[in-house]
Amino acid sequence: MKKIVIVGANHAGTSAINTILDNSKDFEVTVFDANSNISFLGCGMALWIGNQIDGPEGLFYSNKALLESKGAKIYMETPVTHIDYDQKIVTGVTQSGEEIKAPYDQLILATGSQPIVPPIPGMTLENVQLVKLYQHADEVIKKLESPAIQNIAVVGAGYIGVELAEAFKRNGKNVTLIDIADTCLPVYYDTPFTDMMKQNLGDNGIKLAFGETVKAIEGDSKVERIITDKNQYDVEMVVMAIGFRPNNALGKDNLELFRNGAYLVDKHQRTSIKDVYAIGDCATVYDNSIEGTNYIALATNAVRSAIVAAHNVLGNDLESAGVQGSNGISIFDLKMVSTGMTHAKALSNGYEASFVDFEDYQKPEFIKEDNHKVKLRIVYDANTRRVLGAQMASKHDMSMGIHFFSLAIQQKLTVDQLALADLFFLPHFNKPYNYVTMAALSAK
Ligand SMILES: Cc1cc2nc3c(=O)[nH]c(=O)nc-3n(C[C@H](O)[C@H](O)[C@H](O)COP(=O)(O)OP(=O)(O)OC[C@H]3O[C@@H](n4cnc5c(N)ncnc54)[C@H](O)[C@@H]3O)c2cc1C
Ligand SMILES: NC(=O)c1ccc[n+]([C@@H]2O[C@H](COP(=O)([O-])OP(=O)(O)OC[C@H]3O[C@@H](n4cnc5c(N)ncnc54)[C@H](O)[C@@H]3O)[C@@H](O)[C@H]2O)c1
Fold it and tell me: Which atom from ligand 2 is nearest to the alpha carbon of 184?
């Protein structure tokens, strides 16, 4: 039997294990994970912290017993400390200090990412929190019960920071949201959209401290204040959410890396060493919007890249379709979704980019219930007319609409091809002249 070793058993690793074992019985699959749990959905963390769901139980979809029932050998709480890429041997160390040596024919690295820790004074004070793992969320929730914690600074107004700012507000805490950029969610949306989210956060009582650089966290053993280049805020907890860094410790000296340290992979998820694959947050993706290699840490990419790697391990020649970085967020009922490049990013990447904006009600005005305005921006190349990105915002759940644009970018469609696409009409759902058609028709 061919030996497959997988390092990391969270979203990417679990997806690879399932794909291999669901499709073949001819492989011996050995898996190592440093953590004590598998498959925690970080995307549900804010809902759990904000008391919008019953508890964390539903945020797990797999476990050691389930994967072992399929035939995998799973070592939990067993960090891999060394990989001999010449001899093809992975070494893990159990909690009791026992060394496990696992030889492989093919190796899948699924070691994910870690939150970025800024090099500022005060990071080791009590109540400075990182938020990635189940254990992190559990610790934050226990601390929130203390009446001593009333004022919280969230650093980073990206996806995690904005979601957690809402969650802490739902706990009745005073929240200050700090970002080095002059707005929130700048990676994903252009100004008209980030302005909507800014307004939404402000209207719901979150103090916004944008355009401020954090210099230090201060206190006498516990957090007492956070200092920026412009202000200082008295807080009892600081939550750091300024992005992820790929976890490349096991391969950084052996494998070719992307500029941020992620393992550089091709469309088969192959690294620079034969028989070694990398998937999920530790690896690069092929980004169809920029037509090149990129780093986009998302669970969706983790699961799909794992399916691709697993099929190649099985001997099926499967190539990734690439990604568009499609994403979504819902904060105090404001829903925003985006895919591909923002206009600002397209310009900074050297495209002669244009955009078209359109805003309309989701349904005809005679429908009075659950009918909200939807704001749409399509970003396209002014020369080739190729769709480069799209953003949508509404109180209506229009999220499925972004998939249309995602596929358009993947298939290199032009904005003019979208204008004449066959979109159905029914008043319960949309308008005969819907905003997608109208926006695309209006593209200059
Ligand atoms: C709060 C939060 C909200 C999020 N929301 C969303 C969302 O809404 N949508 C979305 O698409 N994505 C979301 N993400 C991102 C998503 O969680 C990640 O992209 C995803 O976890 C990546 O999966 P992964 O398996 O590649 O890596 P990870 O989840 O980082 O898992 C890596 C695994 O490798 C193990 N490991 C690492 N090193 C070793 C070693 N040396 N030996 C053994 N094991 C090792 C770790 O213990 C871990 O279990 C969110 C993330 C967070 C933190
Ligand atoms: N809904 C979702 O799809 C979802 C939810 C949560 C997380 N995620 C993913 O998880 C990953 C990590 O999320 P994240 O929110 O940590 O990263 P992010 O990239 O979304 O946001 C990081 C934010 O931190 C800011 N920042 C960077 N350095 C800073 C500094 N020194 N001081 C202050 N601000 C600073 C950036 O300007 C940015 O706004 C991302 O890939 C994200 O897409 C996705």
Answer: 39
ipTM value: 0.97
Annotated catalytic residue 396: no
Between helices 299-313 and 11-23, what is the axis angle to 10°? 30
DSSP track, 310-339: HHHHTT-------B---EEEEETTEEEEEE
Instruction: Delimit the domains of the chain by residue range.
Output: 2-113+245-313, 117-242, 336-442
Per-residue pLDDT tens over the stretch 85-113: 999 999 999 999 999 999 999 999 999 99
Number of Cβ within a 10 Å radius of residue 127: 22
Q: What pTM, to 2 d.p., does this model score? A: 0.96
For the domain made up of 117-242, give the CATH fold: FAD/NAD(P)-binding domain (3.50.50)
Whether the CB of 329 sits within 6 Å of ligand 2 = yes
Please give the distance, rounded to the nearest whole angstrom, from the Cα atom of residue 32 to the centre of ligand 2: 28
Mark 354-392 as b/e (b = at least 16 C-beta within 10 Å). bbbbbebbbbeeeeeeeeeebbbbbbbbeeeebbbbbbb
CATH 3.50.50.60 fits 2-113+245-313, yes or no: yes
The residue type at 442? S
